[in-house]
Design a protein that fits this description.
It contains one helix and 24 strands. It is mainly beta. The longest helix is centred in the middle third of the chain and has 6 residues.
Length: 317
């Protein structure tokens, strides 16, 4: 696992942090566990992925504006029927299709997420009237090229390599299996549960993906907005008869009001990082747990600090 930070002067309103993972092709596998913190971006772990095995990458984002408190409501879950404003009907009236993009709201906190089916990309997370994520002004949203913004999914390759940059998952249209909004008092989908909004997307191998990467797989992407926390979890299942090796990332674009005042806090001190702003790249040792951006920055922190907090004035992610 590693933490990658990248910033250019042209995009002073955004900082990219990609939590990466590398999966080796071995027989046994331990499933990745998403742990809960009050304010964090979390991703760690490196596990093997053998035949018929599953692994997952998690990203938990909690946006805190001022002293806004977190809500916590529990209840019971019943059956689900998609509400009309989440669906479209095709020519056959019995064929239900979820809207693209999918927009979900936590009706208690009034937080809202927007998910584009192209790449299953979370494009926006509105919390406290502030969008946590950023999108480049020149981003193309018609599916003809990867969207530069939000949370792109890099799979089965992060960065350059034998296939296209950052893999093909962000270039393909995912299937939305489920989308719902729930609360303890019921929901528009007639479901009793904790107050939450949730969507599940899936991408499976096809002849097209097999021509680029010869492995049978299914990816499931779970987007869960609950009581002030946005949890993103990518699950990878190997349906083939042989081991497969892949890398990946949730390549998050975070919106920033004042990049000069931004502070990035975590257990960085003593960790090695690769500075890619120099040629050739140099390996250095971090001397502080709090980072500031003083110019073009592109670093790879080896191992990753586990918990990272972006402090942007009164806001914290």
């Amino acid at each position: 696992a590693a933490i990658v930070m990248f910033l250019t002067p042209r995009l002073r309103s955004a900082i990219f942090i990609a939590s990466t993972f590398v999966i080796a092709g071995i027989e046994s596998v331990d499933c990745f566990s998403v742990q809960s913190f009050s304010s964090n971006v979390l991703s760690r772990g490196s596990h093997g992925l053998g035949p018929k095995s599953t692994n997952s990458l998690g990203l938990l984002v909690h946006q805190r504006v001022g002293q806004r408190s977190r809500a916590s409501v529990l209840g019971l879950r019943a059956s689900f029927l998609p509400p009309k404003d989440l669906t479209n009907f095709q020519k056959t009236p019995d064929h239900l299709v979820l809207r693209d993009p999918t927009v979900l709201e936590d009706r208690m906190t009034k937080e809202k997420i927007t998910i584009n089916h192209a790449g299953a990309q979370v494009m926006s997370y509105i919390s406290g009237g502030y969008d946590v994520f950023a999108t480049r002004p020149d981003a193309v949203l018609d599916g003809t090229k990867p969207i530069a913004g939000g949370v792109p999914i890099c799979f089965p390759q992060f960065g350059p390599g034998p296939i296209q940059q950052h893999g093909f998952a962000r270039n393909l249209k995912w299937t939305c299996l489920d989308a719902r909004e729930e609360s303890a008092g019921g929901s528009r989908g007639f479901s009793f549960s904790r107050n939450s909004a949730r969507a599940v997307f899936e991408l499976s191998s096809t002849p097209e993906t097999m021509s680029m990467w010869p492995h049978k797989f299914t990816c499931q992407y779970i987007v869960d907005l609950t009581a002030g926390n946005l949890k993103l979890e990518l699950r990878v299942i190997n349906f083939g008869d042989t081991n497969m090796t892949f890398t990946g990332a949730l390549h998050t674009y975070f919106a920033v009001d004042d990049i000069d005042a931004l502070r990035i806090q975590g257990e960085f001190k003593g960790r090695q990082y690769v500075d890619k702003t120099v040629s050739p790249p140099e390996t250095r040792t971090e001397d502080s747990d709090e980072l500031a951006i003083r110019g073009p920055t592109e670093r790879v922190y080896i191992g990753g600090p586990g918990r990272v907090e972006l402090v942007d004035g009164p806001k914290s992610v």
